[in-house]
Structure formats: structure tokens, C-alpha cells
């Protein structure tokens, strides 16, 4: 689904992604865990085709990130709200659907499914500017799913979201992955990382380690992921 081989990206002389390798199989939920400045956003920009790496190769959904066919199968949930505040929940979703060429009865059916999934049916006629942060986050998730993406990228999806909603988010993500979509979550929150099937520890643009959360904790004899991350960092230091 996604295969990144040896990519490097520099800004001037500053190497922000260094010889990174990453493989995400079909139907998996993969976490990119790293502190601020680790290179997560840069990596997302490369995967979504907004940035070209200086070297290395990337194959996504059988093509290259900039191929139209590939972009049409990508879903992206940004950290910052990207909704139209003066439109209702449903109007926002209709807008995103039409951007992907979904219209008429097909669009209505998809919207009904998404409103049910994200439990937004009751709020569908409310203006986005009147919604709470958590509800707006759900609309954003629904908007990222409107075209049934096969590869979904979520930037800190549940940061600032209450625990109940976080749990529901993960339930929805698992449902998507069971349908065969792959999910890439970037986060510096341990709770988010723990819910992923596989995680990559990223620091200063370098992959420190990759594996299942439990396996990583075991490998470093660590009680939690934070301790495992620290141990991996120390092991990687000269
Ligand atoms: P993260 O998302 O993990 O916080 P980023 O990918 O945003 O990390 O940033 C990685 C590093 O690249 C940081 O040191 C940041 O200052 C630097 N950086 C990001 N974007 C640019 C840019 N456009 N020009 C120069 N440096 C940048």
C-alpha cells in the first residue's frame, strides 16, 4: 500500500528526514510517533505529494503520490480545522463529496452513512461555527472519508478530544481498516500511539525503531511507550 525506500529531505543544510524506510500494508493502522520537530509533517507532505524528497523512492497505492489516480484514493485529516464555518455540517460534507465527483443519490447515500458512523445525524443542519471542538473534529473525519479513501492520513486525530470520543474515533478507524483501508496516524500522544497496530519511533528525521507497541515495550524492557522511546533514543545515540 505504501512503500518508502531510503528517503531523505533537506531544508538548506538541515536534514529533516534521513534515509527513512517505511512499509505500510493494506488494512493496517500505523502510527508515526515522535516529538515536535521530528519530521512527521514533512513526511506527510512527501506522502501526499506536496513535497518531493531529495532522494529515495516512494510508492503509494500502486503509483506515485502526485498521480491523480493515487490522490483520489487518499484521505487527509489535518490538525487544523479545514471546514467552512458558515455552512452546515451536511453542506460541508456535500461540498467535499462534490470535489471528489460524487453527486446525486450516491452522495446522499454516502452522507447518510457517514453521519451515522460519526453520530452526527442530529447535528447535520447546524452551522459548523456553532459546533464544539470535538463535534467539529467528527465532521472533519467524515469529510476525509466521503470518497472512501483507501489510504487515510490523520494528523494527531484525537488531540484535545475527550476520552469517550477518542475511543469512538478508534472504533471507527478499526472499522475502516477492516474494510481494507490503511490508516497512518501521526502523533506525539502515547495514548494514540498505543492504539496503533504498528508504530515507528521518529526523532530528528531518523527512524529509531518500528514494531507493535507491546513488542517495542518488551524489546526495551520498558513499562510504557514513553520509556521505550527514550531507550530507543539512547541506544541510537553515540
Ligand atoms: P513535526 O511535524 O514532527 O513537528 P516537521 O516536519 O514540521 O516536524 O519539522 C521537522 C524539522 O524541519 C523542524 O526542525 C522544522 O523546523 C524544519 N522545517 C519544517 N518545515 C520547514 C521549512 N519549510 N523550511 C525550513 N525548515 C523547515
From TrEMBL:
InterPro entries for this protein: AAA+_ATPase, ABC_transporter-like_ATP-bd, P-loop_NTPase
Entries under Pfam families matching the protein: ABC_tran (PF00005)
SMART domains per UniProt: AAA
The keyword Protein transport is assigned to this record: no
Domain ABC transporter as annotated: residue spans: 2-229
Keywords linked to the UniProt accession: ATP-binding, Nucleotide-binding
Gene3D superfamilies xrefs: P-loop containing nucleotide triphosphate hydrolases
A single MF term (Gene Ontology): ATP hydrolysis activity
The protein, known as: ABC transporter domain-containing protein
